[in-house]
Amino acid sequence: MNRSLPPIASLRALEALDRLGSATAAAQELGVTQSAVSRQLQTLEDHLGASLFLRDRRALRLTPQARDFADHVRAGLDRIAQGALALRLAPMGGALSLAILPSFGMRWLIPRLPDFARRHPEVTIDLGTRLRPFAFSSEAFDAAIHHGAPSDWPGTQHLTLMSDRSRPVAAPSLLPEGPVSLARLARLPLLHMQTRPRAWQHWFEAQGARPGALPGPAFDQFTTMIQAALHGLGVALLPDYLTVTERASGALVPAFDSAPVSLGAYHLVWPSDRSVSPALAAFRDWLATQAEDEDETLPR
């Protein structure tokens, strides 16, 4: 394949200038002189045959088109760095870079990973945290764990792992007489997840109730919400898999007498515009054996 690629040093200079805001800062990071950065940028302009900079007496500023190009360059450099790291760490089997949801990763995925490691010692899995969908084109991840509907993450294929069956729980000190009515529950302090702002609303609707506004403190992770519930700060709407130990010990008790409600599902997602690497294929196929909903395990 014949590609007329710009020199890598010029691309690094452009990316550093865009990110750091000045040729001086870019030169310091790259370990070269400011004049060397200027020469690299001039080389890039000559190679592309386009003006990339707005020059004035005070600063060297990128044009809007050059800023967009710098975003593509940054993503490309990140992918190169990720590939180089993967080759160093796992030269025979490759590596898989996976974005995980913190609580799901800690409570569900990581306890199962030793089995994958035994079955596929040639594959290295690198884990990073992401709370919301992102563009695979601008992040150095091969796949991600997603909660919600697959349609929430366009441009991906998915493998459904498990349903999110949730129930309201609280510390016994907050519920001295045990489970309460829906009306009473709506008046208690309710703990919310920032990434699931309508979860409580959906849960009440599943009970046939429309309680109106449901104010309460919000948390960005389930781990901190669980701690808040354990210390009696409010009622938490939590997936069952996260509270098995706390419910078994009595540290958290049901706030309402009903079965858990499905509030979505967890999925493995990967970009549909990329070929599936051997490492991802091995991980996906192994995860299919771990999925809890047997009729939802085929990639879509």
UniProtKB/TrEMBL annotation:
It comes from the Bacteria. GO terms for biological process: DNA-templated transcription. Residues 6-63 form the HTH lysR-type domain. The keyword Transcription applies. This is Transcriptional regulator, LysR family. It comes from Citreimonas salinaria. Belongs to the LysR transcriptional regulatory family. Pfam families: HTH_1, LysR_substrate. One of its GO terms (molecular function) is sequence-specific DNA binding. Keywords: DNA-binding, Transcription, Transcription regulation. The lineage of its organism: Bacteria, Pseudomonadati, Pseudomonadota, Alphaproteobacteria, Rhodobacterales. SUPFAM superfamilies: Periplasmic binding protein-like II, Winged helix' DNA-binding domain.
